[in-house]
Amino acid sequence: MKRFKQVLTLGIVLLAGSGFAAVETKNHRCEYLTNPLGIDAASPRLSWIVTSNRRGEKQTAYHVLVASSVKLLADDKGDLWDSGKVTSDETSHIAYSGRPLLSRQSCFWKVRAWDRDGKPGRWSPVAQWHMGLLKAGDWSAQWIEAEVPVAPSVTTLLIRRATYEAVEKSGVADVTAALTSLVKENRLKVEVNNKTLGIDPAQNLAKRLRVEYELGGKAYSKVVDENQTLVLPDELEPLRYLRKSFALKATVQRAVLYATALGLYELRLNGKRVGDHVLAPEWTDYRKRVCYQTYDVTALLKKGDNALAASLADGWFSGRIGNGANQFFGKVPAMLAQLEVTHADGRVERITSDASWKSHASPILASDFMLGEDYDARLEVKGWDQPGLDESKWVPAIVRDESARRLEAQVMEPVRKILELKTKAVTERKPGCWTYDLGQNMVGVVRLKVSAPAGTRVTLRHAEMLNPDGTLYTRNLRGAPSVDHYICKGGGVETWQPVFTFHGFRYVEITGLTGKPDADAVTGIVIASDTPLTGEFTCSDARINQLQSNILWGQRGNYISVPTDCPQRDERLGWLGDAQVFIRTATYNADVAAFFTKWMVDVDDGQSAEGSFSDVSPNTMGVSGVPAWGDAGVICPWTIYEVYGDKRMLERHLPAMTKWIEYMRARSTNLIRDKDRGNDYGDWLSIGADTPKDLIGTAYFAYSTHLVAKSYRALGRVAEAEKYEQLFADIKVAFNQRYVEADGRIKGNTQCVYAMALKFDLLPSELRSKAAEFLEADIKAKGDHLSTGFVGVSYLLPVLTQADKTDTAYRLLLQDSFPSWLFSVKHGATTIWERWDGWTPEKGFQDPGMNSFNHYSLGSCGEYLFGYVGGIRHASPGFKTILIDPIVHDGLSWAKTRYDSIQGPIATSWKREGQRLALEVVVPANTTATICVPAKDLASVTESGKAVEKAEGVKFLRQEKNKAMFEVGSGTYRFASEIVE
User: Fold this and answer.
1) CA angle, corner 518, sides to 513 and 524, nearest 5?
2) pLDDT value, residue 5
3) Whole-angstrom distance, CA of residue 145 vs CA of residue 401
4) How much is the pLDDT for 154?
5) Measuring CA to CA, which of 54, 96, 154, 323 is 20 to 30 A from 712?
């Protein structure tokens, strides 16, 4: 993620020159991206924000110019589109409405705005976007692969004895026969696990395979850990390099490279890396579409000899992905590259991937998301990515037909290196075994720096937690050993960083070195989809600040191309349920609009013809139709619309959203979802609370139906809106008849059922307060502790506050004994745990089969921190109108919150001292806000030191309970009031 965007400061300098309005446009973007390359939208949408130092500033009109060159734009000529002066206060989702855009079209644009007095501001700096390859015929490149078959061994391989055994405890099985049956052509390659060996000698324990074998008449032995790969003879099939040498006879004016892979790729041009993408391309269902990336490589080319080179790996396409899947989408990775060079004379030259490319083994012996990466520096090929290389030992690449693949431009920020973490502590647990603590549970890889003799094999193991004896806790990794190996070339200090894998870890164990490694031998390289950070929350309680940090780190580590559940074990899938319960928190922390624009296409790709959404997207598990999981197909698009005002999101996904509603209707009895609920996870990982699964299904059926009705209403499609409004009303009646008693008690009587019923508006008005009483009673009966799992947790605190039970909400928020949000914080967590009891002092670690320590779902309380403690909420889609309603409570003495909305930065800062409250609010230009100032009465309220009635731009609305409510335009407001204790 990028650093926090500094798009507005509290004091903005007046623009020079009296001829222009004191209004500027900033943060110019196209399709949510800054100066994007490779857009394939026929009518890209432009956005900006308006800034001004005046209170109550508004944009009354705008003028957009789009030109095919910077020179034309400098002359105020929009040869592609001249919008003229448009009377409008809209600043986002302004659809390009000019000449039809062509493939490769360069578009340069600027905008100016008129202020509230009708005075024009200055033209903005030039922004730009570039169109991608819009038609299949624009591609002349061919898909190529670099697989080099290994010749069959002629040396006889005999398995003498093989045992599969527990590492630390009893349990052993003879698997000699099973292993012998897998030997083919005197070679053996097998993944060591229960399935391939046909037995589990020690359930829930770490195991290893011990093999005694004979090769060419000589005896050998080998030990391989569970979930690693045994290869005999001891030869690995390394990843391949690909390269193309070419000469340019003329001066280069501009060069653009379009590339993608079935798998992962990293490109280099004349010895320098192309772009800064990591794990490209982003993960999609390759059967439906493949994202390509676009790079401006003008500065990397030269007249004369050049070389374009690539590394290629399995990645999500042909490597191991969640739940044991291997080679799910294909067997062998492939690459597609098209370099288009425009010379000074206007001539265009194309260098494309084809049979003329060459291939060679790389030093990367193996690379896999789950297993890790192995690198032998002794095998490095000097100059492999530079011109002038002797290619006599390189072999031709293989062209393969992948013409049916649908290619689409990448529409989201790529995965990038976000930051680096230095080691906090180093311990030697036993001789030669060093454990590095990075101080933060992170996602990425390690940059290793060592000095050792040639042939030294350094092993790096990764873990989130330590066992009581200081060893790495890795049992929760299941089938993802997460082990990297580096073989030194010798001759001095060597630096290495894995390229095509990632791990979730805080601790790194180094073995294989004869001496003590330096303290800086390990540096954590944090990667994530580079969604710009938009939120910041701090308060008087350091524990809550750590909780917010944990939430953010959980989001950062699990937004890797898709919103995964966890980054460390053999899963790492785009679970829909996790994504939907967390999405509102995610939108506060970062600008995830482009991220979800891409992922919602993945979700629709996973939908069945009948309308069922899959449990995960990209879909590797088939379709299931699980309540709360499938409903992500409705909840996520609606949330993006609410937060960013994106109607195109609704337009694109409403057909799939509606199919989901009809799927549920067809599989309900009298509108009760009592059958065909797929894997039916329920309120996943709840604590001592059994919420009826048919109730969850029916509640979400109602909620999604309501959101679909609202979506049609937002698009002006009245007939469809009325149809689904009526269906929602009918489901609501069925829900109450089946599950709700006359006194407001709901079947199951769990925190989850009440949170859902209140959030989803399923109860008649006269029962809402009664249901809230039952919810509060359950919380109190549990000693102010949580019992909800994934499904109910995000709604709990907001519905309590909305029911005027903020005291209870704060007691839950500030609780630090088990189960609670702060329990893990108290015990040193730096990310959100999957379970409330992932570890406890009494029981130690939970079941390793389901025990991630980086799992953002239970961190969905972040919405409450920003929206309620900080008080920043939208009053209309896209924050065009804003609600500022901070919940001031004696549990905290102050809180500061900032959120960079699509309209601009919004900020609150409150501090209480006894009965006195100071509240500062920043409202962005071109918006209005309702500010709820905690106050015993209007007379106690001042603004900027004046009686509030005399404050500029502040309109009193009403006194409501213990709040004075005001309407304001943009600006910074400083309120003081006397509050009720």
Assistant:
1) 95
2) 39
3) 10
4) 58
5) 96
pLDDT digit string (tens) for 933-943? 999 999 999 99
- In sequence order, the β-bridge partners of residue 901 are 904
Give the Cα-Cα-Cα angle 599, 601, 604 (nearest 5 degrees): 115
Q: Cis peptide leading into 387, omega within 30 of 0?
A: no
**What whole-number distance in Å separates Cα of residue 58 and Cα of residue 17?**
20
Report pLDDT for 181.
86
CB-neighbour burial class of residue 469 (10 A; exposed 0-12, middle 13-18, buried 19+): exposed
Looking at residue 153, its pLDDT comes to: 58
Active site residue 978: no
Assigned token pair, 536: 């910041």
Low-confidence ranges of the chain (pLDDT < 50): 1-18
In Å, how far are 12, 14, 23 from 18, measured between CA atoms?
A: 16, 10, 12
Structure tokens at 464: 């989130």
DSSP H or E run through 825 = helix 821-826
Q: How many CB atoms lie within 10 A of CB 756?
A: 29
How much is the pLDDT for 362? 97
User: What is the end-to-end Cα distance of the chain in Å, rounded?
Assistant: 41
pLDDT for 14:
34
Domains of the chain: 23-133 (2.60.40.10), 157-232 (no CATH), 237-409 (2.60.120.260), 415-529 (2.60.120.260), 591-682+692-739 (1.50.10.10), 743-805 (no CATH), 870-978 (2.60.420.10)
The verdict on whether 191 is a catalytic residue reads no
pLDDT score at 11: 36
Catalytic residue among 536, 834, 863, 943: 834
CA distances from 686 to 52, 790, 819, 851, 898 (A): 48, 7, 10, 14, 32
Task: Copy the structure tokens of residue 439.
Answer: 């101080």
- Is 930:881 a contact under the CB 8 Å cutoff? yes
The closest of 253, 248, 165, 158 to 210, measured between CA atoms, is 165
- Which one from 31, 165, 571, 642 is the annotated catalytic residue? 571
